[in-house]
Amino acid sequence: MSGSRAIPRFLVAYLGAGLVMAGLDAVWLTLSNQAVYRANLGSILAPGFRPAPAVVFYLVYLIGVVVLAIRPWSTDRRLAGAAARGAILGLVAYATYDLTNQATLIVWSLKVTLLDLSWGTFLTTVASIAGLAATRLIKPR
Length: 141
Fold this sequence. Notes:
Blueprint: H1 6-41, H2 51-70, H3 79-104, H4 110-135
């Protein structure tokens, strides 16, 4: 990440991926909350949404998306590469969460794990593509 172009590209990639990720995740969580999460994990869920931990998750996770999947300072700026790296990152990150929960909690659903793994892989893939595409909109200095 050297040179003056790396910082603006990093921020553009971060914001591009973040906007897409937040928008898609908001839709997914709104549509799936009752049918998937409340139906399968209701007894361990908080009664209401807690925005602070969610915001911290996105802020931290998006650093990983930009650094590990998008890499806007790299010479490899192919969308297919960002998509593949994003898919791997999403699968690994969401598997870490879901499989740890399945291994350690009394109440955890295999259905939730499978849906979450699929969603996390898809979401991170699309966010990675969007973040790299956003960097193509800025002109190098």
